[in-house]
Design goal:
39% helix, alpha/beta, 7 strands, 5-stranded parallel beta sheet, 231 residues, two-stranded antiparallel ribbon
């Protein structure tokens, strides 16, 4: 209850405007639980909520909210600020089991991001440009022309668009599996929001901003029970 999500939405504007010099693009907002997912989605969807207003300001009023099963195009990302909310568990899976997850399956829902499946030259060039894309073997799929084509999955879309990744409760995403998965999305920036950042461990958070509990209390950003304990 210390305002991490609000800080995150403000940070999205700063990151895009000052670092990438744009108002459009793709933000992958990762949360650790269904409860936080529901709360965050409800706030983002409410145009009167401060979180949504910060996102609107960051995008010049061109926000598009997405869930992992939604269809979107390259044009959407070029013209809007697309914010996809995702559970940490949806993507952070072991390599040997990731094919069972929908986001790593070839769905054909994102054709604007990929060349035609039988365009061997274009697929080869895309593999050269982005080295960690998952592939489909056309020989195994019964095509007349064999060879590898880029799998048209959400996972591959993320690798192509290189999202700004915001991780809520970031200290919960420090398992090897979670770290490897998030890194595999080729993020252009990772912002971790945490009240308890890791320190003195194998993976140490690079702390950009540290706000104390008393400072949050002064700004009336802490829930009543915690505020009473700090008083």
């Amino acid at each position: 209850g210390g305002g991490k999500t609000l800080l995150g939405t403000v940070a999205v504007e700063r990151i895009n405007a000052e670092y990438f010099k744009k108002q459009t693009g793709f933000v992958l907002w990762i949360v650790p639980s269904e409860a936080i997912y529901s709360q965050t989605w409800k706030a983002f969807a409410n145009r009167e909520h401060p979180y949504r207003q910060m996102l609107e300001r960051a995008s010049g009023g061109r926000v598009r909210l997405l869930e992992k099963n939604d269809t979107f195009t390259k044009q959407d990302i070029d013209e809007q600020l697309c914010v996809m909310l995702m559970m940490l568990q949806a993507g952070a899976v072991k390599r040997e089991s990731k094919e069972s997850r929908k986001m790593f399956q070839d769905t054909g829902k994102y054709p604007s991001f990929f060349p035609e499946v039988d365009d061997a030259v274009a697929n080869k060039e895309l593999f050269k440009r982005v080295h960690n894309l998952d592939a489909t073997d056309l020989t195994d799929e019964g095509f007349r022309i064999g060879g590898l084509t880029v799998k048209q999955s959400l996972g591959n879309v993320l690798r192509l668009v290189r999202p700004v990744v915001v991780i809520d409760e970031g200290h919960k995403a420090y398992s090897n599996t979670a770290l490897e998965t998030i890194a595999s999305y080729n993020p252009r920036f990772i912002l971790e929001l945490s009240a308890t950042p890791n320190s003195g461990k194998e993976y140490v958070s690079n702390i950009l901003v540290n706000v104390t509990g008393t400072a949050l209390q002064k700004e009336q950003m802490i829930k009543l029970l915690i505020a009473a304990m700090l008083a």
